[in-house]
Task: structure prediction
Amino acid sequence: MLRGALVALALVASAGLPASSADDVPDAAGDPVRGKAIADLASCASCHTADDGVPYAGGHGIVTDFGTFYGTNLTPDVEHGIGDWTFADFQRAMRHGKGPDGTRLWPAFPFTSFQRIDDRDLHDLWAYLRSLPPSPTENRAHETGRGRWQLRFWRALAFRDRGVFEPDPDATAEENRGHYLVDAIGHCGECHTPRGGLGGLKQRRYLGGSDTEPEPGPNLTPSKAGLGDWTLDDWTTFLELGMTPDGDFVGGQMGRVIEEGTSQLSQEDRRAIGVYLMGIEPVGK
Ligand code: HEC
Ligand code: HEC
Result:
């Protein structure tokens, strides 16, 4: 009895997203359950599912200063989805923003952050996408006055390859975990870091607040203009419930990040995010 209860407790305690480390990378087979937790924190479904559409069959419009881009069909349908992709194709899209034939992908797909996701997590994400039912839903054409060829210039001028996340040897394990969740999977910077004229993220003002589409997000750094007065408790409460210290609840895209993402993490992971964000470079007075 007691043993059973202890095992159950241990399972509850380890709920959420177990940490990965370079030592436990399996060769190929990923874990689709873990992959779903990663996909939820990364909001893959929100951009890759039309309103009332089949999950992951594409069609949600992302409005940006450069046009409206539609998330594509990520189900294993061979004709309309990515059924004929290999893991290497997937890895290339996530790490380098390129399709199997070398097509340059639009950065409305936040590969600029996802490129930092480690191999184990990519294998798990892939296993999850492979487990979805195939859907024969055609991709919607993007509405932009620009051509993909222009991405060549964008990549040269505004895209900085930041590489896979490497833990900072001077930071604690908790800070590194928080950094990874924020930067690679949670891609918080895509909405909370300002963008330059070409749409690239201004890393010098990392998480310093953005006023451009798709969704301008406020300054998260520990400054007066940002969230300098938030305590660690404020952070964990916010990430669990979406409530700020003033008692306001966030809505829209951020509400979704909380509901599907951070509220589903373990308390340790929420703490790690808070600890990390309380220690980043302050932006603004
Ligand atoms: C903010 C919106 C957004 C989020 C979040 C997002 N995507 Fe996408 N994704 C897009 C858009 C838009 C495209 C189409 C890019 C293009 O056509 O160049 C895309 C394309 C892709 C592609 C290339 C597919 C193809 O058919 O060419 C893959 C693979 C992909 N996304 C996987 C993911 C995964 C996995 C996640 C979660 C970890 C995710 N995406 C989260 C918007 C998003
Ligand atoms: C898709 C865009 C998007 C992403 C991704 C995103 N946010 Fe947000 N966030 C917003 C927007 C928009 C608001 C303002 C929402 C409101 O006021 O209702 C916001 C609000 C917040 C606030 C409240 C700040 C305040 O002053 O009250 C915090 C804290 C926050 N986000 C943290 C995060 C963290 C941490 C992540 C990554 C795990 C993240 N956000 C990812 C768009 C985003």
Q: What stands out?
A: The pocket of heme C (ligand 2) is lined by residues 182, 186-188, 190-192, 215, 217-218, 220, 227, 238, 244, 250-254, 257, 262, 273 (CB under 6 Å). Strands lie at 61-64, 67-70.
